[in-house]
Structures are given as C-alpha cells and as structure tokens.
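> forwarded from #structure-qc
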C-alpha cells in the first residue's frame, strides 16, 4: 500500500513543447471566429501619432481570456504571454494597465455598439425562436473593496465599503447586456440609472428584436415582446414610465404598504380568489397559492393597465419579510402590465431569481476585484468582466453539449480551460495533443 499522494520527481526550468490552458485557446478561437477583437478595434480611436504595438481590441479579448481563466489582475496576463505559440503576441502587464486607463464613458459606449454587432451573430447562430419573449432582468449587487484609495468607493447600506454596480441580464441566454459601476452609496431605486441601463440593454438586442422598443419608435413595428423584470428597486414612476414609452412590459416586486396589507386582509380567508401556484415546470406547488388584487387597491399613480398579483406560501425557517404579517403564510407580490393568467405570470416573475446565479458567475470571474485606483479604469474592468462572462456563455451555448452548457466558471476552468497538452510540429503546422487520459478531452475536442 502506498500512502504518498505524489511520486518523487526533480523539478527544473527550461521546459518546451508544453501547452497549458488549451481550453482558453479554444475560447479565444471562438472570439476570433466571431470577429470580436476586430469589431472592438474598429471602435477604438487612435491615440497619438503612431499605432500601438498591441491592438487594443486584441488586448481586451486576451484579458477576457485571462479573467475567464480565473485571473484577477493585469499581471495575470503573463500566463498567456509565455505561450506565444498558442496566443500569439500578448501584451505585458504594463500595456494592459495603460489600456484600462485609456477609455472613458463615451469610448465604452462605442465598444458596446461593437459588442452588439457580435452578439447579433451569436443570437442568429443560436436560432432563438420568434415566439420567445426577451426578458431583461435588472439587479444590483454590493462589492466590498478593502481600500479607501479607490475613487468613489463608499460605505454601503449593509455597513460594508465598496461599489454598488447595477446589471441587466438576458434571461434567455444569461448574458450581461449592460453593467454600470456605481459608488457604494448609490441609491438602490435610482430611476435614472435603471432607465439608462434599459436603453443600453435594448441597444444590445439584435435589431429584429429591438425594433419598436427604442424611445420614439412606432409600437406597431415591434415584432417581439420585451419585458423588464426587477425587484422593488425598479418600482419607481420614472422607470415604469420609461418602460411604457419604449413599449416594454414590466414586472416589478411590490413593497409592503397599508393599501396592499388591507387588500390581503380582505381576501386571505376567501378561498375562491386564490388559485394553486405552479412550479417552473408547471407542476402544482404544495401549499402555495396566487391571487390578483388589482380591484382591491388604487393603482392610479402607476401606468394604465397595471395589475397587482400576490402569492402566498407556507412559512419556512428563515423566511424573508412578508407583505402581510401572518403566522401561516409568507406573502409576496408584484406589479405588471402584462395580460395573462395570474398563476402563469407568477411563474414568470419568480424566474427573476435567475439573476442571483448570473451575479454569482460574475463574482467568480473578476467582479470581486477592482484592481485600480481610478474609477474610470475600474469601470473598464467591469466592462471586461462582463465581456469575458458573455464570451464564456457563447462558448457554452455554441460549442458545448449536455450539462456543460450551464456549468459554473470554476468547473469550466478545472475541466476545460486549463487542460494541458503537448505542442508538436508536423507538415509546417502547429498541433496540440491533449494530455492522454484527460477526463474531458472528448468534450474539448468536440468544442
């Protein structure tokens, strides 16, 4: 019996013919196939009289690969730089540092337009069905930092210190359609931020989907249903009016108030009004029920056609705040201007919980780290984190199969991105041979 976990070897420097991070090369190859680097470069204005040695669009894509692989700083680019055979000419960490300090909000807007062009190609390849509604999920998340030197880092409402970025995700694909870095003390229900990101997210949708949903568009030209879904932070007159003026339907969580509490009090013992709730798979949820309370409240301050729908479910240990004090049920509700059965609309609103997984993916891929002092540079870092996450999603949706289509970033790194191989040359071609017996070799070869 052997009780040692390793074999004794001598470790020396000077190795060659080794290929590390083979899966990251596949990820970068997808970016090249989609023309991501070229699209980004076309929107970046030249600085100075001479062209930079390293194309800035390429720098952003290569840093996206670093972040996808678990990198958290500019210095991590060195792990690609030593593999010129796989990744070509890779910039130094100082070049990456300068790149993140070269862009401002206007430049990020230009880069977003380039990204929208690439996203349209991906959605076309995905063959998204015309009947599918496009749901835009809004959510903000606190990110703690540990330095008071970072510009606009501030105390947060949870007694922490850092930033409070706001995101918009596509529920259909999981992509980060828009992201805005905000100070830690930014208001949760800042309507202008929500409206600004709504426009940014609509700008990321393919034109065939976004048509009719831009401000000033003719509503008759809209061919697809677009829905904005948010928690109670999105329940502001300005944001709901912004959705209405863009012909976007809304689902927003309801806050507890005397009017809602009174409506629940009037109906909680009227069984005929409450219908059995359904799971995401369409099966009955034991003990849970849904009721529409639109006729029991005054919604004159909200857009015409707004409805109030409430769900109740049995109390469980650790249950969050309820709209109505009860020893039997937890009550939770939302407003929407969408037509349809209350039970089905409740299923749609509950799926807003997907944002928690999307935010967690970002936090596993660079969102926890804002490495710069400059706020603009950190905003560029956030942009690249979102770009990296989208590139990984595209790789999963287009190139992987089975459970790998929704695998978490850590699993992808361990099994796919950091797969090792041997670099050989044959007939003037570079060939990477994956390590014999690597558990996911067939998955990577298929990709």
């Amino acid at each position: 019996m052997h009780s040692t976990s390793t074999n004794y070897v001598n470790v020396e420097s000077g190795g060659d013919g080794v290929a590390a991070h083979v899966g990251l090369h596949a990820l970068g190859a997808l970016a090249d196939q989609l023309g991501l680097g070229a699209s980004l470069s076309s929107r970046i204005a030249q600085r100075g009289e001479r062209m930079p040695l390293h194309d800035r669009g390429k720098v952003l894509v290569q840093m996206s690969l670093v972040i996808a692989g678990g990198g958290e700083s500019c210095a991590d680019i060195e792990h690609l730089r030593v593999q010129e055979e796989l990744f070509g000419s890779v910039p130094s960490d100082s070049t990456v540092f300068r790149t993140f300090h070269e862009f401002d909000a206007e430049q990020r807007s230009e880069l977003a337009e380039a990204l929208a062009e690439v996203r349209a190609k991906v959605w076309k390849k995905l063959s998204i069905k015309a009947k599918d509604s496009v749901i835009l999920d809004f959510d903000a998340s606190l990110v703690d930092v540990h330095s008071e030197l970072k510009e606009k880092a501030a105390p947060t409402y949870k007694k922490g210190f850092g930033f409070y970025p706001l995101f918009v995700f596509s529920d259909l694909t999981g992509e980060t359609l828009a992201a805005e870095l905000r100070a830690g003390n930014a208001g949760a229900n800042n309507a202008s931020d929500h409206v600004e990101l709504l426009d940014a997210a609509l700008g990321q949708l393919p034109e065939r989907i976004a048509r009719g949903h831009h401000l000033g568009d003719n509503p008759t030209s809209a061919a697809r249903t677009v829905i904005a879904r948010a928690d109670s932070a999105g329940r502001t007159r300005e944001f709901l009016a912004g959705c209405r003026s863009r012909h976007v339907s809304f689902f927003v969580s309801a806050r507890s108030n005397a009017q809602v509490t009174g409506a629940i009090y009037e109906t909680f013992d009227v069984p005929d009004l409450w219908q059995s709730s359904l799971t995401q798979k369409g099966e009955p949820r034991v003990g849970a029920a849904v009721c529409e309370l639109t006729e029991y409240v005054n919604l004159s301050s909200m857009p015409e056609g707004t409805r109030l729908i409430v769900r109740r479910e049995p109390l469980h240990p650790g249950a969050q705040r309820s709209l109505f004090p009860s020893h039997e049920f937890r009550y939770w509700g939302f407003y929407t201007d969408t037509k349809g059965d209350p039970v089905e609309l409740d299923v749609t609103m509950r799926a807003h919980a997907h944002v928690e997984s999307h935010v967690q993916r970002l936090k596993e891929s660079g969102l926890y780290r804002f490495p710069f002092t400059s706020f603009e540079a950190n905003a560029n870092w956030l942009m690249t984190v979102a770009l990296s996450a989208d590139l990984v999603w595209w790789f999963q949706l287009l190139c992987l199969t089975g459970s790998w289509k929704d695998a978490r970033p850590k699993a992808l790194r361990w099994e796919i991105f950091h797969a090792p191989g041997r670099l050989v040359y044959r007939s003037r071609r570079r060939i990477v041979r994956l390590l014999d017996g690597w558990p996911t070799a067939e998955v990577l070869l298929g990709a």
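QC bot note: The mean pLDDT is 91. The first helix runs from residue 22 to 34.
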